[in-house]
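TICKET: design request
STATUS: open
ATTACHED STRUCTURE:
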């Protein structure tokens, strides 16, 4: 990657080639943010459909380096959902099969493929990255990786898709940021006459100030294992979305079975899912029909619609309810 020092060539120390490549996004989030992206080394675990989309976005955004790690082989399903895998790749390692198309997206990003199992990686492997994003991982693997990242100040992201259901989690440790806020006009400010000119004056006179803020992110272990023993927690339990408990069931299934529910194992997987649900604190939030198939989708558990954007009709068919879902969880 070509780089230049401050004052040489491109603005703010980036090369002219980079300035041209990233012109639109520099206008969007600023030069300093682009420079931080350019210095970032990212690890991406899991190259199924979601992982391919994340890889594409990171590469086009212009990170310094991206390592794609996946020890699984390309399956026939991958060829229909993973656009980085070329035709005829079934049986190849998924990360290695995705490498060429990923590199072609942006030659200025150093993209590498790692065909090893993430669970075999030592702690030192993760500390070489600035951010780690995991998909398709077991619950135990995610907890271990997040613990390493949390202890070493590495940004951690996790996400996955299960049919209509999906989730995302971020552990940024202590995250400092700046928020722009409009100053509130004082009550004793001189009155301005009404009219178009007055309205323009009011808009032009509006001032903004930058406010520094800090957010403390909790580790994944705390997010997945809340303490429900207190009365306040019990009240919160009743208000918690069923999506949270479905996620717990699906992650535990993946840990126990080493895979996700599959249509060819429908009867066996339904029994296992119901058994796992029985051991969850929010078991009552998931009726027996949560494993039932949707008319358009065969695999169990893929029909539970997310609280963000799924159609009410899908929710009803998935749950077998005679009445529509509450308005708060249906799409507009």
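STATUS: resolved
RESOLUTION: sequence designed for all positions
ATTACHED SEQUENCE:
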């Amino acid at each position: 990657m070509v780089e230049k020092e401050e004052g040489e060539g491109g603005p703010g120390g980036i090369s002219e080639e980079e300035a041209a490549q990233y012109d639109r996004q520099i206008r969007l989030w600023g030069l300093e943010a682009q420079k931080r992206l350019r210095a970032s080394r990212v690890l991406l675990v899991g190259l199924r459909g979601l992982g391919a989309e994340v890889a594409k976005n990171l590469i086009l955004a212009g990170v310094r380096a991206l390592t794609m790690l996946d020890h699984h082989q390309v399956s026939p399903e991958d060829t229909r959902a993973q656009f980085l895998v070329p035709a005829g790749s079934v049986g190849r390692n998924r990360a290695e099969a995705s490498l060429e198309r990923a590199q072609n997206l942006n030659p200025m990003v150093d993209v590498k493929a790692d065909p090893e199992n993430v669970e075999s990686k030592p702690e030192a492997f993760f500390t070489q990255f600035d951010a780690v994003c995991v998909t398709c991982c077991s619950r135990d693997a995610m907890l271990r990786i997040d613990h390493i990242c949390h202890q070493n100040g590495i940004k951690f992201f996790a996400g996955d898709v299960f049919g209509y259901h999906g989730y995302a989690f971020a552990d940024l440790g202590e995250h400092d940021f700046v928020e722009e806020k409009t100053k509130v006009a004082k009550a004793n400010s001189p009155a301005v006459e009404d009219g178009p000119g007055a309205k323009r004056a009011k808009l032009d006179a509006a001032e903004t100030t930058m406010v520094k803020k800090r957010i403390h992110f909790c580790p994944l272990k705390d997010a997945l294992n809340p303490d429900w023993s207190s009365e306040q927690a019990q009240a919160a339990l009743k208000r918690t979305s069923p999506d949270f408990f479905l996620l717990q069931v699906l992650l535990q299934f993946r840990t126990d079975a080493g895979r996700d529910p599959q249509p060819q194992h429908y009867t066996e997987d339904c029994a296992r899912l119901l058994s796992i649900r029985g051991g969850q604190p929010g078991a009552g939030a998931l009726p027996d029909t949560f494993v039932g198939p949707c008319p358009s989708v065969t695999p169990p558990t893929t029909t539970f619609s997310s609280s963000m954007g799924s159609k009410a009709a899908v929710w009803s068919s998935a749950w077998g309810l005679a009445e529509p879902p509450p308005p708060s969880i249906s799409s507009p």
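CLOSING REMARK: Strands lie at 41-45, 65-69, 110-114, 131-134, 155-162, 165-171, 174-182, 208-216. The chain has three domains: 40-171, 175-214, 229-329.
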